[in-house]
């Protein structure tokens, strides 16, 4: 029974990781950069939601929706200023600038909000604590199901946008060949800015759910970045549904590790990641030159 | 009148530079006889920073590998020292052996992480560092999560101990910079600088990039292992959370970006600048780190070759002759 419970909790936790990974995967797919500030931007989102929820006395779920326009603006501005410039100066510069940005964001949050650990679970009502009881040791929490549903909705929505809309077509075209896309009238900088805006918004949603699901503080970002990255790699780069599968695998690995010994939880996730990396799949994924993005879910 | 050009390794500035560097090493070597123990301890920290900056620069400045996970080797070097002393090895011998173990770790990890490119390598190495840190924390023999002290060194009087640690650090700096210098002077050095400028172009003219990247990765593992073991010898106590902390990577990136990415001299300049900043501003709390991050971003965007490029201003000023350059000479 403990094992079944661990697997259920792991699948639900995987929804949260997939949400974190979604923006990372999108930015990597479109711009070929790994945004090392992704986790810290998610935590910034969590703090914005926390401010709106506590100052405006609204439910954290409403606050999450309310914070999205701001986060979209932040993402758009980020690409227009910092990232567009660093993209022009070579492959390594975006890594260095986003790492610097991560340190700035993390410590600015520390300066403004102090190192206190916060959570939004208390403000979220029954949804955050209750669940369906399926026996003595087995429970399916409402919140976990909600997070998984939101993850599926966000990833599925993004997938639909990429496949069915003109904007999605522009994004795929730019991901495959920015110069050729520019020749037919699609400015890469526009597409990049929109992709970053979406990525930062999904990061904020993930941050908000992290805050509702457990706790957060200004230093939570790097861990979330690592989990997101692990989910992306386990699931296979360049596929959004793969990202969901990767998040679920990571979540299950962590909860099963925790059943053996709570200390093994995070280590088990790292080990699964390293095994995937060492396996033939990892070799296939990385030994080639980066491929154009395949949003069709291969 | 036709101008004649000749290709030269060294010129007056590099003769002066190399001479000054040799004098500086001699000067640094007598420091413990002149100054008190706390200055010696501070300077040991500076030497460790020089080591770290030089190694990170070798990785990303020459081999194009931006790592956020070199703390794996810093922590591994420190904990290997602890482990060896627990097995009865003399502490300073353990400090000298630990870097070899770190190089061995690098050889084991290389097939795994060198598959990764760009940002994947950066985060992948970080995950490895976190995994090693967690495994160390699970080992109660190594003090678990609470930290562990290096025993056996506190029997020495503190000024003697600090002088020995300092000399060992100086020896490692000379060894590492010497190895890097020899590597850059050799045929591989030209290849490495070609990789630095454009990896695909280098590969297309027949540079075999994989073995060179492996060599640099192992050298950087060795050097960071030495830095970790010496940090332990300098402070006598370590905690896994801090010795495996990602702040080491932040410091390395800052030093190299400020000093000059992809130059031999830049990391030394960057380490000195960072050492000064650390001593003046580290009480500033978060503001200090916000400043570090912002300055690193500014350098990456606006002055990618760092302070050293400002000093040399496009002129061929070299402390050590690692490259070749053209010089004009009058017609005979």
Question: Could you give the topology of this structure?
Answer:
The complex is a heterodimer of chains A (298) and B (332).
Chain A: H1 2-31, H2 38-56, H3 60-88, H4 93-113, H5 126-129, E1 131-133, E2 139-141, H6 142-164, H7 166-176, H8 178-183, H9 188-213, H10 221-235, H11 240-260, H12 265-278, H13 280-287
Antiparallel strand pairs in A: 1-2
Helix pairs in contact in A: 1-6, 1-9, 1-10, 1-11, 2-3, 2-4, 2-9, 2-10, 3-4, 3-9, 6-7, 6-9, 7-9, 10-11, 10-12, 11-12
Chain B: E1 4-8, H1 12-29, H2 31-34, H3 37-62, H4 71-86, H5 91-113, H6 118-138, E2 148-149, H7 158-185, H8 187-197, H9 199-204, H10 209-235, E3 237-238, H11 240-243, H12 247-259, H13 266-281, H14 286-302, H15 306-312, E4 325-329
Antiparallel strand pairs in B: 1-4, 2-3
Q: How would you summarize this macromolecular structure in one to three sentences?
A:
The complex is a heterodimer of chains A (298) and B (332). Chain A has 298 residues and is mainly alpha-helical. Chain A has 13 helices and two strands, in the order αααααββαααααααα.
């Amino acid at each position: 029974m403990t094992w079944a419970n661990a697997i259920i909790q792991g699948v639900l936790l995987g929804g949260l990781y997939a949400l974190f990974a979604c923006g990372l995967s999108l930015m990597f797919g479109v711009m070929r950069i790994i945004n090392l500030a992704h986790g810290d931007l998610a935590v910034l989102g969590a703090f914005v939601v926390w401010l709106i929820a506590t100052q405006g006395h609204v439910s954290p779920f409403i606050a999450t929706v309310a914070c999205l326009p701001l986060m979209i603006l932040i993402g758009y501005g980020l690409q227009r200023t910092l990232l567009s410039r660093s993209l022009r100066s070579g492959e390594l510069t975006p890594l260095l600038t986003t790492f610097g940005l991560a340190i700035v964001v993390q410590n600015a949050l520390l300066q403004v909000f102090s190192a206190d650990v916060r959570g939004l679970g208390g403000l979220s009502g029954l949804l955050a604590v209750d669940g369906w009881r399926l026996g003595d040791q087995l429970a399916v929490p409402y919140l976990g199901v909600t997070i998984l549903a939101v993850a599926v909705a966000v990833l599925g929505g993004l997938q639909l946008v990429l496949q069915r809309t003109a904007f999605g077509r522009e994004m795929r075209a730019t991901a495959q060949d920015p110069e050729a896309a520019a020749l037919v009238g699609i400015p890469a900088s526009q597409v990049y800015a929109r992709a970053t805006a979406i990525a930062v918004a999904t990061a904020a949603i993930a941050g908000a759910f992290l805050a509702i699901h457990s706790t957060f503080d200004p230093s939570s970002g790097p861990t979330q970045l690592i989990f997101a990255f692990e989910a992306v790699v386990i699931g296979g780069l360049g596929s959004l549904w793969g990202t969901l599968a990767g998040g679920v695998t990571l979540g299950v690995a962590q909860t099963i590790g925790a059943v053996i010994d709570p200390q093994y939880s995070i280590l088990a996730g790292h080990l699964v990641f390293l095994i995937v990396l060492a396996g033939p799949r990892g070799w296939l994924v990385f030994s080639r030159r980066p491929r154009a993005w395949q949003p069709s879910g291969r | 009148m036709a101008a004649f050009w000749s290709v030269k390794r060294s010129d007056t500035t590099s003769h002066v530079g190399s001479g000054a560097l040799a004098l500086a090493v001699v000067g640094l070597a007598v420091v413990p006889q002149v100054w008190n123990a706390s200055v010696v301890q501070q300077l040991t920290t500076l030497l460790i920073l020089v080591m770290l900056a030089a190694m990170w620069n070798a990785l990303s400045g020459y081999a194009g590998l931006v790592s956020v996970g070199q703390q794996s080797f810093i922590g591994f070097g420190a904990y290997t020292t602890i482990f060896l002393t627990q097995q009865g090895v003399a502490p300073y011998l353990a400090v000298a052996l630990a870097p070899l173990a770190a190089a061995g770790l690098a050889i084991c990890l290389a097939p795994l992480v060198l598959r990764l490119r760009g940002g994947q390598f950066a985060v992948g190495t970080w995950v490895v560092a976190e995994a090693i840190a967690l495994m160390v924390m699970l080992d109660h023999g190594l003090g678990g999560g609470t930290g562990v002290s290096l025993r056996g060194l506190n029997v020495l009087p503190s000024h003697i101990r600090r002088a020995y640690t300092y000399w060992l650090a100086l020896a490692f700096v000379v060894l590492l910079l010497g190895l890097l210098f020899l590597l850059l002077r050799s045929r591989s050095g030209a290849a490495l600088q070609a990789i630095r400028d454009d990896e695909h172009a280098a590969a297309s003219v027949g540079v075999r990039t994989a073995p060179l990247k492996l060599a640099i990765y192992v050298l950087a593992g060795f050097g960071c292992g030495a830095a970790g073991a010496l940090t332990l010898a300098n402070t006598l106590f370590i905690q896994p959370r801090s010795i495996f902390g990602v702040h080491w990577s932040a410091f390395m990136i800052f030093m190299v970006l400020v000093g000059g990415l992809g130059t031999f001299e830049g990391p030394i300049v960057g380490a000195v600048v960072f050492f000064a900043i650390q001593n003046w501003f580290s009480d500033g709390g978060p503001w200090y780190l916000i400043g570090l991050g912002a300055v690193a971003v500014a350098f990456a965007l606006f002055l990618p070759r760092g302070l050293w490029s400002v000093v040399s201003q496009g002129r061929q000023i070299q402390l050590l002759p690692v490259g070749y350059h053209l010089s004009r000479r009058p017609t005979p």
